[in-house]
Amino acid sequence: MSNPQKSKRRALKKMLHSVADRFSPASRTPSPLPPRGSNVHDIGSDGTQVLDASGSNATAFTDSSPAFESGNSASSQPPVVVGPTMVHDTQVGVRDHVEPGSGGIRVDVPQMNLTPTDKGQGHLEKSAWHGMQMLLKIAEKLLEGTPFKTPIAALNVLIDLGNAISDNKDALHELYTQTQKCLEVVNAGLMEIDNKDTKFRAITEKFAQSLIEKILELRAMSETSTWKRILENEQDNAKVQKIFKWIDKETENFVLQMNFNIDRNISSLHDLVSQSKLDNWDYSKKAPYDAILNDDTLFRAPCIEGTRIRILKQLYEWAEDCSPTSPQVFWLTGPAGSGKSTIACSVAKHFDEDNKGLNILQASFFCSCQFEDTRSRANIIPTLVYQLAHHSKSFLKSLFDVNKLDSVNKLGKQMNDLLVDPWQVSTSTESRILPPYLVVIDALDEIDGHGGSEFLQELLLTIEKGALHGLKFLVTSRPDPNIVELCKSFSSDAVCHLYDVDTAEVNEDILMYLKNKLPALQNEIELVTLMQQANGLFIYASTAVKYISPRRGLTSNDQKKRMKQLLDSSLSHQTHHPVKATLQIDMLYSQILSEAFEKLSKDEIQARLVILWNLLCAEERISPIVAARLSGSDDEKDMEECAEYLIESLHAVLYAKEGKVFWYHASFPDFIFKAECFKETGHVVSSLFCSMEKHHSFLGHQCFQIMKSELCFNICSHPSSFLLDNEVPELVNEDKISQTLKYCCVYWSSHWSTCLAQAQGMHNEINILYDDLQDFLLLKILFWIEAMNLLQCGQRCNYMLHEVKKCIDMTSPNTLTRVCINNDKQQNSLINNITEVSNFAMYFLNSPACLSTPHLYISVLPTWHHSAISQKWKEQFSSVPAIKGSRGQTGLISEIEQKAEVMSVAFSPDGTHIVSGSWDKTICVWDSSTRAKVLQLTGHTSGVYSVAFSPDGTHIVSGSWDKTICVWDSSNGAELLQLTGHTNAVSSVAFSPDGTHIVSGSNDKTICVWDSSTGTEVLHLSGHTSGVNSVAFSPDGTHIVSGSEDNTICVWGSPTSAEVLQLTGHTSAVFSVAFSPDGTHIVSGSEDKTICVWDSSTGTELLHLTGHTGSVSSAAFSPDGTHIVSGSEVNTIHVWDSSTGAEVLQLTGHTNWVSSVAFSPDGTHIVSGSWDETICVWDSSSGAQLLHLTGHTDAVSSVAFSPDGTHIVSGAWDNTICVWDSSSGAEVLQLTGHTDCVSSVAFSPDGTHIVSGSWDETICVWDSSSGAQLLWLTGHTNHVSSVAFSPDGTHIVSGAWDNTICVWDSSSGAQLLQLTGHTNHVSSVAFSPDGTHIVSGAWDNTIQVWDFSPGAELLHLTDHTADVNSVTLSTDAPHTGSGDNMVHICNVPPNPEHPPTVLLDPHNVSPLAKQGVSTDILTTRLLNSHWYSTRDGWLNLKNTNQHLMWVPSDILQVLRHHHNCLIISKQGDLSVDFSQAKLGTEWVQCYTGPPSHNHE
Predict the structure, then answer these.
(1) H helices of 292-392, where?
(2) Using 50, 70 and 90 to split pLDDT, how confident is the model at 348?
(3) How far apart are CA 1189 and CA 218, in angstroms?
(4) Is the dihedral of CA 314, 316, 318, 322 positive or negative?
(5) Looking at the whole model, is its pTM more than 0.70?
């Protein structure tokens, strides 16, 4: 690259950097909003409560009524407004505003005069006594029969006492003042309370009555003498202090209740929730403690009254404890069936009932492995937050103020966005004292995987940071080892181990429970025996009750017989060891199973067992019919009857809900899956044990068999390929896709993976699954993708196939690879096929084609790159559109759009995520299969130039032009470290292979090595003489390689900081360096457009790869070292063979500089980031794009030769035009006059004149020999972008950014025509050679041809996929050039007045067309010539929205439209042929493979 080119590149970098700063958040921070509470809303008609004030002195109230007596005169002082703005106290706290519309208890307060009796008292006193008056007014009827005939008379007792002690700063004075402060809070709070809240009115009346009693005591004392003398008596003084302490304490309690009621203002909350549309939020509806689980018949039950008294008392006291030392988390633990959930339900119910004091329960989540939404960790936070928002007005408002409701399912991100941030905003703006709010989370051990312990760990870390002050969490679980480890440091007052509870206490509770549930047997001595058998487990008692009394109508004798039968079969001895207590419940389950199976034959037992095991092993709860069909029996009806009988006979442990089968307690499936439970059981029961791994293998095989039988082409009878799925009513129903088939489609991979994860000793089973999968991939896999898309489960496809591939990769050599796969080639073939299917599914499901399922076959299959397996698919679909012509080695599968230039991208170690760094100062983390943004990390103050994952994927490192390096938590986005030390932009960062160190390269010419845990700088390497562009560790971590602007590559010893090698050979800046996976080679990419491969030990240059036509910005090895990928400033990516240097692939699709490239960890994908603001993911073998995560002193803009070739004219961004001698290069003329960039120049046909167009909105005509300005043409209202003379020189045409074309008389300058029709900037205009037509190109991606004389539009060409920058007309066709790097040669119709007519075949009009819905069957001529393309790739029938076909962007940009006869482009030249295609209602005929058993 030449020096001017270097300067331009660096200037562009600098410009981007400054633009990024210019639009930083700091530069556009909005003016601060007025503080919350600045608007005051008081009671009264004018919004205030007005009191007449006598000044700042202490006062007594007077009343104009005759009953009022006072020795003080009325005051003439101006009125004082008493409202919340007067109330500020940090000790007690008052809300500083009243919410509009929140109401307020209204009382008719008489006008009061405040008379001064002492000095030093202000508005505190006035609002305090006003609050007291409001209280007493509410309870005025309570004054009947007392000496106080009005509330003010009672108040004067307190005011007189206050006047007496105002000069004494003793303990009594402090108590008096504190009471005033509390009453001040009451004054403000009563204005906010909902006057319809009957419960709070009752609380208020009770409090007021207590106050009256205490004031009566004070009045009685005041009648004995004056207050001064009374207070001089030590005993009387102490008595008064005691009364005020009582008033103070009771007022504080009342304030707590009042504040709580204000925050839980139900009527206003309902309005807010309705306005916020929060009820549309996705949350678990089965998780709250009071959720109805089975219509109205099944719900979670609390403890029987009178049981668990001591434990509940402990939990109630903990929940109500407001002291700062009270633990925020309480852990209740015990073995399965010990009653944890029932206790948790009791606590939740206690604090959620109106008659139990403060109903402080804010949220609950009862985990259960039986329901999909209650076993997912991702649902916990949203469900808790949903309930919190329904209970707390302040939290609801803060939740929407924070506005992060679309937070992703990352635990840390959810915790911060949905709970922590809104809660902190809520508490920071809430100045009232509130009670601690309670959250109950039950059975954390039932969350999938380790999700329960992970949630608890995140919760404890968050609480440790002080982020959830004011919330208390009751958590229950079994003694799961991970949870036990987290809770081992809990203090004794924060833990309750149920197995440590006194045996006698538990037995007494169980006996009480049995008597309550079996009233007919409550006097039977056997109940005591049954209680002893339970051995402390409530689940035993509960299951026994269901066994003894399974239905109504059983007599007491029937129940006695069943109880005796149960007891006779129990263990003959008791076990008191807490761990062994579960043996009792195991014996009870054995008894229940024995009764259900003992009278059946061996075959009957086996048939029912398979159904039972299906129910217990299914990935979601299934119906008896699905369980029966999964059994594999030919007699489905008989199996369905067996399933119904089985559930009825196991009523004590199973129940049916909404057609699906559930178990009452998780201890039952635990029993079935534990072999040791069956060692000492009878013959019948011993055969009931289920080997989970083998049964998952069975279910996996059954899923394949059912899919093989039922999946078919067009399974839902889609009527027309012209219709989107959502345009077809009731497209998907159970008649077409049964619940059994749906289950198999969604969960086959789960059973497959579970089996392979435990594959030891299961060779035969795995062989069957392997054969199933191989057969499935041949064709049925396409029908599976079709069904998943119709079921709206399509995004699961890639995840499911990824899991299967991962299991094959990780399976022990002793199992799958030896048994099923005879050699490495066969294993690689299977993995490659799965990878291709995964990529194909991603390609379809991330494209617009997925909106119309027929286009899986019509659009996606024909445009998919050729491979062995896809070729077999295509052979079955011969009647689909054909893409013909030469296609480049590229194909975009999907795209991720960014809002700024992407500077760096990288895969996570497991390939599931992509991290990108951008010029907008942010780092984004994306799901690599769905394109969903998982995290956005902010903190840098300038563009992010480099990003990387740590080897374990838990951290991300970023380097920025703000000179810093940041380390982030990849799960929640938290910034962990900020490393400073560089004195210029950080251009490259990387982790060491063991993750303990970070290396960074900077424009300050140095390399730094940092400790990744502490952020300490370990090494500082200097030696480069210019900025360092790229750094990397060797695979063993012992060396570092760096590439620099000084054209060199250096290798350093990382422990010693010594320079080991300096590699020279590049002739310009080195932008990228990387080690090969084995560390023996180094690859470098340079500004000199080449890639070099070096021997890392000797520094010898091994390969010199050429092919790029611009600077190589990024280069990397594949994980196996066999390939190199490189990205360039000319928008392309190349893949090379690392041993031979041969170019394997060239990937095109980006429209700007490719700044970063990398392989996925398994080498199957390439990720690229570009200055076109997009991230792309490519198939590394086929090149298919999977994801699309888009003399002068300044630039020369236009050049042209004179007609005789002796001169050149040039226009530039420096506002000038130059004329040059074409043979010598000498400057002949410099023409000045334009005041902005010159965008276009041209000679007249005779060479005597020059025309120029400028961004100053004018056109100038110059004498080409003298340089004199002859004409100055004005009329455009925006930049003039293109000018040209007519062939005879009499006219000038101009195109401008005002979307118009103008035609001018070249001699007079008169404007003759203004042509309109473009919808974006006109970038190029030209005359046809005969001067009869004008062609124009614009940034609306279209070319238009105009009849010059009338100015009518003849043609509207929409071939280009990017801005059209240049057009010209030949005698036979227009030629156009565009920003999409292509030349289009288009046919002009010979008779523009009669364009081709759109024809329909009258014999093939579809039934839908007759109904006016659509027109389907079209002639081949029409299909091939009358369609237009949309920006998202649809080829639609002209003048309609009917979708003929969808094509990806790499095809669209080189696809001939109906006026094109040739496209000249490196990316190819393609056309679409519809001649053999069956479309519309005939689309079903596109499948020509084996017979398909569809539902037509």
Answers:
(1) 309-320, 340-350, 380-391
(2) very high
(3) 77
(4) negative
(5) no
